[in-house]
């Protein structure tokens, strides 16, 4: 259930204000906005086929002054016939003198000529009903208007029994190809918190046109990679506890001590999870006074009287909970609310008592729902959300730009949007998500429980032919196996639906031919095999078994030679029996034992779940979605990071970067392998593989992604997370080059250190980039940010890093479809712009790792790849010599394009162990690098 700490009157007011953004923005900013609009209009007409009518009277979604850069950011939407155009955005960024430093627009030329009438056929009420139907939600009940306004500004309905929030409905145009469609935009926050929809319904016909979701879920890969990977079990780290404690002491963000008043026991920044750091005591005084002047927790007494009054204060309960100005953290399995959404139960957050001592025992073996473990996880989640708030605010994600706070102390931006951080969210498993509506509405972080896959065991005791142990995955629907006292135990029978071609075992229909035999038994089912695609869903298959009287279900993978347990995704609240998935090999073995109506006996048990609230990298990743969503396109527009497959979606990449950044420790190096989600996945921290396809590393031998990884062909990145992985790779490369240039600072609030400079650059770039950017748009935004804040001091470095990954000056982004860049048509390029210095990118040891010349793996054994992004008018000549200059591998001639893209692979098996020099001769000169060869 939801934790909504706002009364209905405050919420109505917040929504009404949110719908009046243009007037509010202009009133706050005055002349700067007027000047910005005039400059935007002039430049847009001069540099594009737009007419004066196309850029007249744009809708100002937000405008604010950024004190960290001295820029005023003004974000716009095209307006035609008094209505905004949903996916036609623009922005103008001006300096203190009013000079335009950058502007962009994606307006539709000749819009008025292709705009239909502004008079809708559907009423707003009918639009809500149509949207609910298309979103597979119940029909709204007792729908009433709460806020009346012009349809162009928006009407607000009550929740209608289908939404967690009141329902805004607004008339607008939406661009579809080169035409405009009159639509009602209906915003519905699903009661199960799985989606927060903006659905666009044709205002003339009632047909569904489009939708987007404020909820960014990791289900596309977090769950899939966990379920499809063969992972080693977690092992203790070699690092000693004493060494880890010393690291924690050295960190400026966490301290080592004993349980004490005004403190929390947590895994401190920058440590990623309990596998690599002991839990230590962090005092509430760790809150940075510049960014959390009223503290992290409501009971600290730093805030003025009545600061947390009415809608948020829980002080009257006599408890001191994990609540504050930045975040409310709680156990989502225990949340209760009254009719208007106000918290009534105070038992779902740990109580630090009158001394604010949030020290709770944690023992993984006792299970995630152990009271001490629950409290410890929530406390850790509370601490990390507060740290993320303070660190990101220090780099420019502040109140006016849309950060997450109950009250904004500067009275800039909109408050009432703290993060609701839900620990052990009860709605699903093996996942995490973040919901980021526009500024003024709370962000929602949902952390889930994760299968302890290594400990999941199905034990078959009879018949002898099937006896043994089988690994399995649990389902994301139905009752949790961990809640059953003895697991899922009983007799097992293969189903016969009488329909599916594979002996009826695919559970494609009901009733079963052998329904009587299934009654009170565990049903064995094969994945797939149904003619109707809908019935191939795991939920449908298990539901059919349930309708035939089964007490549980085992679904085995359809690949008869596969050894990976079948994933079990899906949601269906009507499924009331537990289900597990096993591999194709194990399933066929079990099926053979059940031939001729035989019966097996078995029991499936799980190990203690992992609590996602302890995976600090994933927590940071989720918070990162709120950062990138609020900063791109301005805080009032949460529709500027399209998050669907097939597009150059970069949100997942920024979130991975934030996760890696927050967990970088002194002594780390860019060539190390870094993973995301090892704790949640039950994997060794240093081994992975985590939730991504490749580790993050500057070492091409470990991660060789280039821009050509994006595309629609087999093996190319098309899914949202896989695309984001490529973007995070180049950001991670750039982060390390900044560290090698400027050093590393363990003080994450400092402006010094390459890591801090890089994070500031990324946040500045988010503010400057276009709505729904592609990779090259993101690159250009970083270059502009560096020009504004550093006078382009790092431009050469940025270009070299991006060129190394195929995003150089001659790269092509690919076409936009309705304002969103797609992965199709991407062309990588490795050239530097004219006048850009070639920089020998280095690692922490000073060895060259890019652009001038790189050779990997180093040390090499049988194979060595030599690669450079240098240009050459003639084929490059590659040779290996020893330290005395004697040739040990003769010269090879290689086209420059091949050296830039894939490099040259050399056979070094005949070269003796030792240190050598790789020499590459180009029309630009001769370049060398040392390599070690070991056999």
From TrEMBL:
Record carries keyword Nucleus: no
A GO molecular-function descriptor: zinc ion binding
- The segment annotated Disordered runs over 332-354
Domain Secretion system C-terminal sorting per the UniProt entry, residue ranges: 856-933
**Which Pfam families did the record assign?**
FTP, PA, Peptidase_M36, Por_Secre_tail
This protein's source sits in the domain of life called Bacteria
- Could you provide one GO biological process annotation from this protein's UniProt record? proteolysis
Domain (FTP): residue spans on this chain: 60-107
> Where's it found, cell-wise?
Secreted
Domain annotation PA: ranges: 506-590
Q: Which cofactor does it need?
A: Zn(2+)
According to the UniProt entry, which residue ranges have a biased composition of type Low complexity?
A: 335-349
Keyword entries, A-Z: Hydrolase, Metal-binding, Metalloprotease, Protease, Secreted, Signal, Zinc, Zymogen
List, alphabetically, the SUPFAM superfamilies matched: Metalloproteases ('zincins'), catalytic domain, PA domain
Q: Where is the signal peptide?
A: 1-27
Any Gene Ontology CC annotation: extracellular space
Q: Which family does it belong to?
A: Belongs to the peptidase M36 family.
User: Protein name, please?
Assistant: Por secretion system C-terminal sorting domain-containing protein
Where does this protein come from, organism-wise?
Answer: Hymenobacter arizonensis (Siccationidurans arizonensis)
